[in-house]
Design goal:
- By secondary structure, the chain is mainly α.
- Helix 2 packs antiparallel against helix 3.
- The radius of gyration is 17 Å and the shape is elongated.
Length: 95
């Protein structure tokens, strides 16, 4: 499912649920707003990874590449967990 499709599905499901409180809706809105920015941020991170790999392939060095890549992987996993919580209606739970 694409990000846009997921967000549309989530919005329609939320609109149908009349039992939710304003606080739950606000929490979900905050999560969805953050998720909207993820593709752009991951694109920037991917660009940085590509630049580091280019430097490594041309004999240069990238001393912090492993740590940066590990950070990127952790961020992607956190995004996945957040998306799953929203999809499963568990937006109030800790990651």
């Amino acid at each position: 499912m694409s990000v846009a499709g997921f967000l549309a599905h989530s919005a329609l499901a939320a609109a149908r649920d009349q039992s939710r409180t304003a606080a739950a809706i606000a929490t979900e809105r905050d999560i969805l707003t953050a998720l909207f920015g993820v593709p752009r941020q991951l694109g920037w991170a991917g660009s940085n990874v590509n630049q580091a790999v280019k430097a490594l392939n041309s004999g240069g060095s990238a001393p912090h590449f492993a740590a940066a890549l590990a950070d990127l992987q952790r961020a992607a996993q956190a995004v996945q967990r957040a998306a799953e919580r929203v999809a499963n209606g568990q937006e109030g739970q800790a990651a």
